[in-house]
Amino acid sequence: MHLAKPGLFPAEPGRAIQRAQTVRQVADYEASPVPHDDATGTVRAAESFVATAAALVAGFYQRPSGPTP
Fold first, then answer.
1. Cβ neighbours for 33, distance < 8 A, ≥ 6 positions apart
2. pTM of the model
3. Phi, psi of 17 (to 5 degrees)
4. What is the pLDDT of residues 4-49, one digit of tens each?
5. How many helices (H) and strands (E) would you count in the chain?
6. What sign does the dihedral 23-24-29-31 (CA atoms) show?
7. Residue 64 reports pLDDT greater than 70
8. 48 and 19 in contact (C-beta within 8 Å)?
9. Which candidate, 45, 41, 52, 38, places its Cα nearest to that of 9?
């Protein structure tokens, strides 16, 4: 299933979010905690995903020129 038009968003951030979902499921449903390195990597991947998405959105929507109210 594609949540974005293929080619519009880089593949790696999407894969990182899928891995984050797996980490979340482990954290929620497994008896052992998520290792610190896995949690840290997941946070970094999420930050990268948000930065990539923000850059993509900024490319679609530009601020109007002229004075701001």
1. 27
2. 0.67
3. -65, -35
4. 667 777 788 878 888 889 989 988 998 888 899 989 999 999 898 8
5. 2, 0
6. positive
7. no
8. no
9. 52
